[in-house]
Amino acid sequence: MHLRNEVLARYRTIAIVGLSPRPDRPSHEVAQYMQAHGYRIIPVNPAVAGTTILGEHCYATLPEAAAALAVSNVDIEIVDCFRKSEDIGPIVDEAIAIAANCLWMQLGITEPAAAARAEHAGLIVVMDRCIKLDHMEMIRAN
User: Percent of the chain beyond pLDDT 90?
Assistant: First the structure.
């Protein structure tokens, strides 16, 4: 079993950093798909913080989301990044601070130094992969 499949089988709460409220955006399509397959989606986007995306409250930052969810004993397990590669560093710092289990960088996003920092802190790192496509592949294989 691929490590990606283990992550998808084990962890069910995904903070999507850069989730757009626009249905025509890839981040929205991916989030909607994952939600339809039983994952809890936590929108993180400072531009639309305080609104609702896919029925979930949108937060400005990962620490803000983690603090709000902690009240209900919910942990952010996967941090899925829809941001440019050069924006990944601060997201990694936040993912480490909230003790996420996995940092997932979507297709086209690579930041080896940030990935190394995340791995050093104990996070599983997936880089340059689409979580939706990997989930679809996992379903087909089973």
Answer: 96
